[in-house]
Amino acid sequence: MAENDAMPTLPKKCGPYISSVTSRGMNLVIRGVVLFFIGVFLALVLNLLQIQRNVTLFPPDVITSIFSSAWWVPPCCGTASALIGLLYPCMDRHLGEPHKFKREWSSVMRCVAVFVGINHASAKVDFANNIQLSLTLAALSIGLWWTFDRSRSGFGLGVGIAFLATLVSQLLVYNGVYQYTSPDFLYVRSWLPCIFFAGGITMGNIGRQLAMYECKVIAEKSHED
What we know:
Layout: H1 2-6, H2 24-52, E1 56-57, H3 73-95, H4 105-124, H5 130-148, H6 152-174, E2 179-180, H7 192-224
Antiparallel strand pairs: 1-2
Helix pairs in contact: 2-3, 2-4, 3-6, 3-7, 4-5, 4-7, 5-7, 6-7
């Protein structure tokens, strides 16, 4: 009986998927680093599409990094991706509504593929006018949320992220950091909030999956012990 009483109990909050690491702070750091590099990679690939089609224009003196992207774009997108990916599971815990809809890596990868497709459509598909393009991308973005998320918190965070990111983009263009060709929504393109919304949903799904995967591995390790 004494030995059973001395057995350690499994903590209520699951730790990181690296079994030798148990602190919650290190858990967040590991997930944040993974999300950061995912965001950097997506930023390089997707920004390349926009530059090739002359949708976004940077001053020649700032095009110094790979894929002809301004040096500050990948780290900024990586940081934003890490914050978004960590915020989604934290919000789920805070609201007491764990997200269980399509929680597997294959679904997450399909979500990423759809997001890349939406960005590709904004750069390469020709529409009669910007309004038609914006409405199409809005429908696709909401369809992405409905297919891979369907949570109220996910939709709310996606809208908030789209609003803040569009506001920041307006300020950057206003100050001459970069510019859009044929702007029709103040200084940017009207479809830009749709891209930010879809990107927020995508990084939120990745963040949720990483958090769930860590919990699963810790639970399996505890069962083996």
